[in-house]
Design a protein that fits this description.
Blueprint: E1 2-8, E2 11-17, E3 26-32, E4 35-47, E5 56-61, H1 83-96, E6 106-116, H2 123-137, E7 147-154, E8 157-160, H3 164-169, E9 172-178, E10 183-193, H4 195-223, H5 237-255, H6 260-277, H7 286-308, E11 323-327, E12 335-341, E13 344-353, E14 359-360, E15 369-370, E16 372-377, H8 394-407, E17 420-429, H9 434-448, E18 458-467, E19 470-475, H10 479-484, E20 487-493, E21 498-505, H11 512-537, E22 551-556, H12 562-566, H13 571-580, E23 583-586, E24 591-596, H14 599-613, E25 621-630, E26 633-639, E27 642-647, E28 668-677, E29 680-684
Parallel strand pairs: 5-6, 16-17, 27-29
Antiparallel strand pairs: 1-2, 2-3, 3-4, 4-6, 7-8, 7-9, 9-10, 10-21, 11-12, 12-13, 13-17, 14-15, 18-19, 18-20, 20-21, 22-24, 23-24, 25-26, 25-28, 26-27, 28-29
Helix pairs in contact: 1-2, 1-8, 2-4, 4-11, 5-6, 5-7, 8-9
């Protein structure tokens, strides 16, 4: 066992090797404060046959024992990964995947097991660094090391690996991954941070990452295994030559069409024709033929972009696709907005609910609830395919989280707008940039719902083509450019600054020059979208909520009275809800929030609650109901849940022989509070007249 230590953003980082998971190709134990994560890297001994991609799997496993919790539910064990775990797996996958050999077909699995969590020291960062160590010291071919960290912003001060309290107050939540030379992954949520400040944060973070990469290199020098000689899955020269001879000119003609459906149909026809002609000669090697067809299309599209600045739909490199937008499409929902960019078409529906409708979280963070939820659905018909729906996958969860991050900074506070908010983005047609389309569509839907957002948010992506050290960027990439290009750099924000970033890279990293160019061009395009189609469609949030959205009444009661409003076993509040049809939330500080589509019902529920908590006032007259008759008088409920005794002598001005001669159960009467005795209330009917 070996132990290596270094300073990481002012705290000690420890890497232990040779202590656990001996049968993995590479493993380490990462300690960052009291946060402990075991990371392993394992590769299958033989390549997987019949595939044309590198089969990498990244798993980030949360265990609730790491924070001293027992899972809920009947099974009392962890179930499917949390959304946070899925997003962390994606954050690790994205920077690592391009650094493995492109012709490697052996299965590789990176697994991070979170064993202990100290909230000030991010387990996600520990997992990212551990993954780099585990793969780098293993015999798995890898062009590393890389390292990652988190960057925050307090006022104008950039903070590296912020503590829990610093994260709460930070205007920036940036996760950065890089090698010694280039940036390999950026993911950020921000409170309208200017582009200049964002690039400064990236540079400051990179300086610290370089130190960690050097630290990992020392571990590799001492502990690293020799990299294995893997079986390369490069297509044979004879297959490449035969396919190119049959397909190249035909593919050029098929791809040179601005209409996606025509382009796709003609490309499929060329592919089918080539496969049929070579079926006998390359029987059993169909995958090689298919891989060459893919490579040829990639070569053609990249050549057009780089050498001719030509795009398949005829646009210039910095031109946006045609844009359209619409709001109020659906009559019964609270808000709806559709945003289209070329063929990409996203419909978002906004729904408002009670604070009790917030999502309950059961993860390793201290965060327990999520008030704003954004969900993204990507059905097969959106790309003209057919497959059964199996629920959201990692991609859908990731795109939903990106849009959620983009819009969160502009939402009104719970105090100003005490609703739970859910947006659902339905991708109706897809040809690239659906995640950024969902950002735009969601802004429209929220404004259509009357949510008083601080500013509209728009999203745009920019692509990249590289040839050696030369490169070209192109704005608003469509599917084919994303598929064959080197980068999908997504930026969302307002006129004031950036609210979210997500970068997918297929090369070994980005220079500062590329990142700065991406920020400048996406900012200009974002302004054009905000000032153009979005402002023309709906300039500001509607002044009134939809008539189908719940209305809200908010007021405070004495916290000591909450028990009376709830009642034994919840009987009192359940009866109020049953009688009025409203939703009621009561917080520990006595804040009561009533939601109802019918305002009159909400006011009725409010009156009942106010009556329950009201203290009887001596000398005050009330209207009540006779609830019980005794020989000595009648009990009258004069406030909800409160009754008092009207003695027989106080029923009328004249002498009363029998109580039943004056009142009956259920009768409404006027009573006056005339005194208190041993916690009981004495009432009078004759004095109320």
């Amino acid at each position: 066992m070996s132990i290596y230590k270094t300073d990481f953003a002012g705290r000690e980082l420890t890497i232990e090797t040779g202590k656990t998971a001996f049968l993995a190709n590479g493993s380490c134990l990462v300690r960052y404060g009291d946060t402990v994560v075991q990371v392993t890297a394992t590769m299958s001994p033989e390549p997987r046959e019949g595939i044309d991609f590198f089969p990498l799997s990244v798993e980030y496993a949360e265990r609730l024992y790491a924070v001293g919790k027992i899972p809920g539910g009947f099974t009392k064990r962890e179930g499917r990964p949390t959304e946070k775990a899925i997003l962390t797996s994606r954050v690790i996958d994205r920077p690592f995947r391009p650094l493995f050999p492109k012709d490697l077909r052996n299965d590789v699995t990176i697994e991070a097991l979170v064993l202990s969590v100290e909230q000030d020291n991010s387990p996600e960062v520990a997992a990212m660094i551990g993954a780099s160590v585990a793969v780098s010291i293993s015999d798995i071919p890898f062009n590393g090391p890389i390292a990652g960290l988190q960057v925050g912003l307090l006022g104008d001060t950039i903070i590296l690996n912020p503590t829990e309290n610093e994260r709460i107050n930070s205007a920036l939540e940036l996760t950065l991954c890089a090698s010694k030379d280039k940036i390999v992954m950026i993911e950020a949520g921000a409170s309208e941070v200017p582009e200049e400040k964002m690039i400064e944060a990236i540079k400051v973070g990179h300086e610290e990452i370089i130190k960690i990469c050097q630290f990992i290199s020392k571990i590799v020098k001492a502990e690293g295994k020799s990299k294995i000689a893997y079986k390369s899955m490069v297509v044979a020269d004879d297959v490449y030559a035969d396919v190119k001879g049959l397909a190249y000119d035909a593919l050029i003609k098929a791809l040179d069409n601005p209409k996606k459906e025509v382009r796709d149909a003609e490309t499929r026809a060329v592919e089918n024709d080539v496969k049929e002609k070579l079926a006998v000669k390359y029987d059993g090697r169909e995958n090689e033929v298919g891989e060459v067809l893919y490579k040829l299309q990639k070569e053609i599209v990249r050549s057009w972009l780089f050498d001719k600045e030509k795009r398949v739909d005829g646009r210039g490199l910095m031109d946006l696709r045609s844009l359209s937008a619409e709001v109020g499409l659906l009559p019964r929902v609270h808000g709806s907005g559709m945003f289209a960019r070329g063929y990409t078409q996203v419909l978002t529906i906004a729904t408002l609910g009670a604070i009790a409708d917030m999502q309950k979280l059961d993860g390793l963070d201290n965060e327990e609830f999520k008030r704003y939820m954004h969900h993204y659905n990507f059905p097969s018909y959106s790309v003209g395919e057919t497959r059964p729906s199996r629920g959201p996958g990692r991609r859908e969860i990731g795109h939903g989280a990106l849009a959620e991050r983009a819009l969160l900074p502009v939402l009104p506070s719970e105090e100003d707008f005490p609703y739970a908010i859910r947006c659902v983005s339905e991708v109706l047609t897809s040809n690239g940039s659906t995640s950024q389309g969902s950002v735009c569509g969601s802004t429209l839907a929220l404004m259509d719902a009357g949510v008083p957002i601080k500013a509209p948010v728009a999203g745009i992506s920019i692509g990249l083509i590289t040839q050696g050290k030369k490169y070209k960027t192109m704005l608003d990439i469509q599917g084919i450019e994303d598929f064959f290009g080197d980068m999908d750099f997504k930026v969302a924000g307002t006129k004031k600054g950036i609210t979210a970033i997500q970068v997918d890279i297929k090369v070994d990293g980005l220079t500062y020059e590329i990142i700065e160019e991406a920020f400048t061009k996406t900012r200009d395009a974002r302004y054009a979208i905000l000032d153009g189609i979005m402002k023309e469609t709906i300039a500001e949030p509607r002044a009134e909520l939809s008539k189908y959205a719940p209305r809200l009444i908010s007021f405070h009661i004495d916290p000591e009275k909450i028990r009376e409003v709830i009642g034994t076993g919840g009987k009192v509040i359940q009866k109020i809800v049953a009688d009025t049809g409203v939703k009621i939330d009561i917080t520990d500080d006595g804040k009561v929030v009533i939601l109802a589509v019918d305002v009159e019902k909400a006011n009725e529920a409010k009156a009942i609650i106010e009556g329950i908590v009201e203290e009887p006032e001596l000398g005050k007259t009330y209207t009540g109901k006779v609830v019980k008759i005794m020989t000595f008088g009648a009990f009258v409920e004069f406030l909800p849940g409160k009754d008092g005794l009207v003695h027989i002598s106080k029923l009328a001005d004249n002498r009363v022989e029998k109580v039943e001669d004056v009142v009956k159960e259920g009768q409404e009467v006027r009573v006056k509070v005339i005194g208190f005795e041993n916690g009981k209330v004495n009432l009078s009917m004759k004095d109320a007249e």
